Amino acid sequence: MANPAWYLPADRIFGPDPAQRRIAQELYEQTAAPLPLVCPHGHVDPRLFSNESATVGTPAEMLIIPDHYVFRMLYSQGIPLEALGIPSVDGTPVEQDHRKIWQIFADNFFLFRATPTGFWLMFVLKEVFGIDEKLSGKTAQSIYDQLAAKACLPEFGPRALFKRFHIEVLCTTDYATESLQHHQAIRDSGWDGTIRPTFRPDDVIHLLRPGWREKVRVLGEITGVEIGSFSSFIQAIENRRAFFKKLGATATDHDGITLRTGEFAPQEADLIFQRAFQGQASPEDAERFLGHMLMEEARMSIEDGLVMQVHFGSHRNHNQPLYDRFGPDRGCDIPFQAEFTRNLRPLLNRYGNDPHLTLVVFTLDESTYSRELAPLAGHYPALKLGPAWWFNDSIQGMIRYREHVVETAGLYNTAGFNDDTRSFVSIPARHDLARRVDANWLAGLVLRGIADMEDAHAMMYDMAYGLAKKTYKL
């Protein structure tokens, strides 16, 4: 008896009403589906594209180890990260047998039912790799063999998949002190795919992060600036931004638990900077310094044209024991209540009216969409709203985002879609889901007489492609 097959109907995600389903499918198939993928924000490792011989790795390396959307669900059911091969930072031994990791994943694949992660994984296995049978404990090793065999073929190499996925541009996220050697190698290779870095200075602007002084030392070393004061620190940041831009960057990225923007005098900035160098910075110092640096980064963005992204509303590394063993980005970022109206006011009053600034704000706190962020974006020329992010990057989360934001801010004060993934092979799945959700939402507008089909097709184009290209200057 044959193993059960994946169920991925052509009209999946669209609403049950026949009229809405018909309109949604037309919008998706005629406008959204043929468009290239623009990926302005994500975390794919650029080394995948640095040479022609690179591979997507083992099935575990493709779909489990890099993707905290996947392993956080398994961890929540009591499966230790060690058993999933997640690299540790404290020397904790982890499983090295990727077949064993895959078997654990397959045995527990049912955990992803009715989740966006489950949808992405089904899409990758069936549409990207042509695996027709459903993944289960029974089929695990057979599917592993099929995936491993295909991963060795030239047509499944990262560069070949980049073309097959119809990716127009892919932006990575890179810390200020990273060398960008893989981006340079991509350029030197003559390959015509477009991979751009994104400047993320979090490693040097968060005073209390472990290793901050060493990161500042490295920043000085790679920029040729002797950093002994706040002014020289700013010079090094500006130099590094210029280097990223030279290698194709069009954007920066920032995160933080606090978002209390505000400026202080250069002398005070230098005093805090010196205290941090002596290991004496307080949490209040770190919060105020970040707020001042966000102001500085906005100024720099006006001067050099880089789009400024801010991700806020996520309590990073909430699980301290797990962070101590495995480091950051291990699936334990948790949403918290955020505030933007007062916290962003100093920055917006200083720079928000300048058309040369593009500030894209993301949040995990959905309650701020209609109360604060949509009204702010609907007023300040510089401000755009990033798409539904992290936990909100789901069917219902994306629907809520559209319903809470568009009526007040308008569609054209949003920034389009980004996949925000670390798993390269999941990129088309994430875009496909977002495009289907948006097509279904637009079909509802048509049926209610809010938009006609001409406008709906134009909006579909911009939601899937145009807004991201324009916002991120791609």
In a nutshell, what does this entry contain?
The chain is α/β, with parallel strands linked by helices and 474 residues long. The chain contains 19 helices and eleven strands.
Please tell me about this protein's structure:
The protein is α/β, with parallel strands linked by helices and 474 residues long. The protein folds into two domains: 18-55 and 154-471, TIM Barrel; 56-153, uronate isomerase, domain 2, chain A. The chain is built from 19 helices and eleven strands. It has helices spanning 18-32, 59-63, 68-76, 98-107, 116-128, 140-151, 158-164, 181-189, 202-205, 212-223, 230-246, 266-277, 283-304, 320-326, 345-351, 368-377, 395-409, 427-447, 453-471, and strands at residues 37-39, 167-171, 174-175, 195-196, 199-200, 251-256, 307-312, 314-315, 334-335, 359-363, 383-385. The protein has a four-stranded parallel β-sheet with strand order 6-7-10-11, covered by helices on one side. Strands 1-2-4 form a three-stranded parallel β-sheet. Helix 16 links the parallel strand 10 and strand 11. Helix 5 packs across helix 18. The N and C termini lie far apart (51 Å).
